[in-house]
Amino acid sequence: MFFDFGAGEILGLAVIAIILVGPDRLPRVAVDVAKLVKKIRSLANTATAEIRENLGPGFEDLKPSDLHPKTFVKKQIASALEEVDNPKQEPKIDPDLL
Predict the structure, then answer these.
(1) Cα(76)–Cα(66) distance, rounded to whole angstroms?
(2) What is the per-residue burial (b if ≥16 Cβ within 10 Å, else e) of 49-79?
(3) Which residues are CB-contacts of 1 (< 8 A; sequence separation ≥ 6)?
(4) CA–CA separation, 50 vs 84, rounded Å?
(5) Contacts for 57-66 with beta carbons within 8 Å, 24 or more apart?
(6) CB 40 within 8 A of CB 31
(7) Which residues contact 51 (CB under 8 A, 6 or more apart)?
(8) What are the alphabetically sorted keywords of the record (predicted)?
(9) CA-to-CA distance for 57 and 50, rounded, in angstroms?
(10) Backbone phi, psi, residue 27, to 5°
(11) Which one-letter DSSP state was computed for residue 89?
C-alpha cells in the first residue's frame, strides 16, 4: 500500500474526524468516502485495462506500477535482451500492422 499507518495514527485520524465532522454525520461521511474510493479504484482498473488493450501484444501482464517511466523502460530493455539471447522464439508482431 502507499501509506504505512500504525494504530496511533489511525486513532488520531478518527479523533480528528469526529471533531471536524461531528459524531452525527460521521457514518454518512464514511459511507460517502468509501463510495468515492470504490469509484476511483474502478476508474483506475478501467484505465489500466484500456491501456493494456491499446498497447497490444506483449503487454498482457501490465500493472499500473509498470507505467512508471523507469520501470517501463527497464522492463522493455530486459524483454529485448531476452529476445536477443533466445532467438528461437517467434517475434511478437502486432497483426494489425501487417
Answers:
(1) 10
(2) eeeeeeeeeeeeebeeeeeeeeeeeeeeeee
(3) none
(4) 29
(5) 57/92, 57/93, 57/94, 58/92
(6) no
(7) 59, 62, 67
(8) Membrane, Protein transport, Translocation, Transmembrane, Transmembrane helix, Transport
(9) 13
(10) -60, -40
(11) S
C-alpha cell at 88: 528461437
Intra-chain end-to-end CA distance of the chain, in Å? 42
pLDDT tens profile 43-83 = 988 988 888 888 777 777 777 777 778 887 888 788 778 77
CA proximity to 64, closest of 51, 78, 79, 80: 51
Query: Distance between CA atoms of 64 and 45, rounded to whole angstroms?
Result: 9
Query: Helix, strand, or coil here: 56?
Result: coil
Contact call for residues 61 and 69 (beta carbons, < 8 A):
no
3 state SS of 8: helix
